[in-house]
Design a protein that fits this description.
rod-shaped; 125 residues; 0% strand
Length: 125
């Protein structure tokens, strides 16, 4: 019946697939050009595959080196910016302290002058 036909078709396809796999493996192993191996047949195919793998590996390595050099440059720039910022803040802090010291001196000078004025006013009375 219909079920047995489907079973036969399934078995035929499976067997055909097994034969195709066996033929492909045989052509790869023996380097036959008869099989469906195509570019994989013989030593030329594996050299091409190795060349592709090596090209990918070298491109990846090149990209990694480029990325690392960019990151090193960015780290260096950030470090220089940090040093510049630290120098700027140190200078700003020094100037702030100088301004406070001048303010204290002027305040002391003003207080001394005021005390002298008040003493002179008291002496005139």
């Amino acid at each position: 019946g219909i079920a047995s036909d489907k079973r036969l078709i399934g078995n035929n396809n499976g067997g055909g697939r097994r034969n195709l796999v066996a033929k492909t493996q045989q052509s790869i192993t023996h380097g036959d050009s008869n099989g469906s191996g195509g570019s994989f047949a013989g030593g030329g195919g594996s050299a091409s595959v190795n060349q592709s793998i090596n090209a990918a590996r070298s491109a990846k390595q090149s990209h990694l080196l480029t990325y690392q050099s960019k990151m090193a440059k960015i780290r260096s720039e950030r470090q220089n910016q940090k040093l510049d910022a630290a120098t700027f803040h140190a200078e700003a802090e020094r100037m702030r302290r100088e301004a406070l010291a001048m303010q204290r001196q002027l305040s002391a000078k003003f207080a001394k002058a005021r005390a002298q004025r008040e003493a002179a006013i008291k002496a005139d009375r």
